[in-house]
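Budget justification aside, the reviewers requested a transparent look at the raw inputs and outputs of the sequence design task funded under Objective 1. We therefore reproduce one unedited record. The lines immediately below are the structure tokens for a 302-residue chain.
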């Protein structure tokens, strides 16, 4: 396996200039983690980095992980396997594979072995018994949870927080809670860390974040906002998609409406509602996931 630290982590900061920001004296910059690497970028690289180091330390040569058919995580793990030269296996929420789906097609091009399973079996992905059976089936494999969220993932996201400019607020999209937990670990105590939940009824994530991050239990400088999901995971309005297109045209900021687009749309609403005091410095994390646009085109959703 190649040296796992060969991805340059100095992704650029993009300053956003707009009338809404100027009139409120608010500074907004975007951490463009979507530009970390053409295929393994955003929070997927941040979470993978220390998992791959741990995989190497355990002398494992294969990776087994889980995801839906359009998963950014599956896409990134398949790309990492090809880039760093190790075997990958994806357990896909099924029950069957659509070989024309662009994410599945890409994973196969990267030589990821794909195993579609029923939704009932897929629900077992956190069960110790199921994971023990998988480990027996793949004795040389490192098992990585869906979305890549675990303790090792937090280290990469903590590093991200420590690399950011001095900010009053750090804001990120939140799916499984790993990125938010890592940012809480790495942020300065006076910085407010805000997660925008991209799925419905996401309050349960608050306990998951506390289970991942010690600091989340002892510090009150973070929150998860659960009212900006736009109808649920993978759902979005015409208004949100129009906002994403406008940000691309006006600010050359590419967004997809599932994660970073949803977060930016929520942030814009909060700014317009005067949620942030005048003089605030905000850093928003672009967590990548732009490959998801291919899937939305494929399903004719955009």
């Amino acid at each position: 396996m190649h040296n796992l630290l060969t991805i340059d982590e100095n992704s650029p900061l993009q300053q956003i200039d707009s009338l809404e920001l100027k009139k409120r004296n608010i500074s907004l910059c975007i951490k463009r983690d979507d530009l970390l690497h053409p295929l393994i970028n955003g929070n997927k690289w941040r979470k993978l980095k220390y998992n791959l180091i741990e995989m190497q330390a355990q002398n494992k040569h294969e990776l087994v992980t889980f995801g839906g058919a359009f998963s950014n995580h599956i896409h990134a793990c398949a790309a990492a396997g090809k880039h760093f030269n190790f075997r990958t296996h994806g357990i896909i929420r099924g029950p069957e594979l659509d070989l024309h789906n662009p994410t599945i097609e890409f994973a196969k091009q990267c030589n990821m072995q794909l195993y579609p399973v029923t939704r009932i079996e897929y629900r077992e992905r956190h069960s110790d018994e199921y994971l023990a059976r998988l480990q027996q089936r793949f004795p040389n494999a490192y098992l990585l949870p869906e979305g890549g969220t675990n303790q090792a993932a937090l280290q990469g996201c903590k590093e991200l927080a420590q690399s950011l400019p001095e900010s009053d607020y750090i804001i990120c999209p939140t799916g499984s809670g790993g990125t938010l937990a890592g940012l809480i670990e790495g942020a300065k105590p006076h910085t407010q860390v805000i997660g925008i939940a991209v799925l419905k009824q996401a309050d349960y994530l608050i306990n998951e974040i506390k289970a991942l991050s010690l600091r989340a239990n002892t510090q009150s400088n973070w929150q998860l906002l659960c009212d900006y999901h736009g109808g649920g995971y993978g759902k979005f309005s015409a208004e949100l998609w129009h906002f994403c297109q406008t940000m691309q045209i006006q600010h050359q900021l590419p967004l997809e409406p599932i994660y970073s687009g949803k977060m930016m749309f929520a942030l814009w609403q909060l700014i317009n509602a005067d949620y942030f005091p005048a003089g605030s410095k905000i850093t928003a994390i672009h967590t990548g996931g732009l490959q998801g646009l291919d899937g939305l085109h494929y399903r004719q959703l955009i």
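The mean pLDDT is 95. Residues 13-36+155-298 form a domain with the Rossmann fold fold (CATH 3.40.50.1100). Computational costs for records of this kind are itemized in the attached budget.
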